[in-house]
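Subject — a protein and its fold
Fields — amino acid sequence, structure tokens
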Amino acid sequence: MKESHNGECYIEIGFSQVAKEKEVVCGDVFMSKRIPEENRIVAVLSDGLGSGVRANVLATLTATMGLHFTLHRYEPQEAARNILSALPVDKVRKISYSTFTLVDIDSELNTSIVNFDNPDLLFIRSSEVIQGKEKRQVFQKGRRAVERSLKYIEYKACPGDRIILVSDGVSQSGIGSVLYPFGWEIPEIKNWVKGILESKPDISAQELASRIVGHAHTNDAFHARDDISGAVIYFRRPRKLLLCTGPPFHPEDDQRLARRIVEFPGQKIICGGTTAEIVGRELGRQIEVHLESVSAEVPPFSMMEGIDLITEGVLTLGKVASRLEKGVTYPIKKNDAAGLLISYLLNNDQIFFLTGTRINEAHQDPNLPVELEIRRNVVQKIKRLLEERFLKEVHVDFI
């Protein structure tokens, strides 16, 4: 979450990519990190020279350096110069071994960007393309090295704004075709994105990034001629989710649990049959089980008036933690309770766990599966994964 003069604003980041045809890995690398104690976001998109494993190694090295320098309070221009000092120049093609874009967003939504040889960024406000304040700096490594030009952009973001970064696999997609003889150039990308936002103004960062990359892949007739990558940074009001799991330690707090759920200004999920029964009893509402959602891995989900989703407790949370750890592909599969729960978690920004501390003796049975961890440990694992991998703001409270 970011606090700015414009009020509460959350920064959502989405990324998508397709590797060059016949390559095992992508030669583009995107990294981002949220620094809660500084209310700061840092992101890097790097494109390694060539494709495949070699390009991926070069791009990973560049992105890691960019993230490291920026996190340690180097000015973006200084971080870029340090990267260029470390990166050699290809002797034949006389170009750098990697291109990159560094983005640093502070607590007031002041955004500093350095772009070295990646396509121009898009700044979108109310479906219209706007301009950042751009400067150009020339950097020279040694007397015999070729000069390398850096674009430095300063930008003051507002809620509702989007910043779009793409690799040249996007801007050069479809090159030589009848529709895009010179590739899908930045002005054409701008118009295409504008059309998407006019028809779906609240589109998520992840969906927009996926659609940009998907369209570029279509331009290449689904035979990617280069690595195709797109990232979207979306400044917007935060979406909030309350997840309650486990009964309160003291039965007299059952009413307080129900009241907190009713008063919460966002989506609401209950994980645990006992917890759901308590809330239903306190609110006088019925639980409806959806038996068609049963799967081999997790029990079916249920519904209740005023509650967005009800699932079984520790077993389902354990599956959620396991799937988050393995990695999530988009679109998220929602064919069981764990998939539905993951979609809710990833579609919200501020996630509040309200964890009951009453011990369920069933979870201490040594005959049950090993992965059936104590609820609090599972919640802490999910919290860590959501914060580190998905840049969510997560709070855990106990009752």
Notes: The first helix runs from residue 52 to 71. Residues 1-7, 367-373 have pLDDT under 50 and may be disordered. Residues 63 and 134 are 22 Å apart (CA to CA).
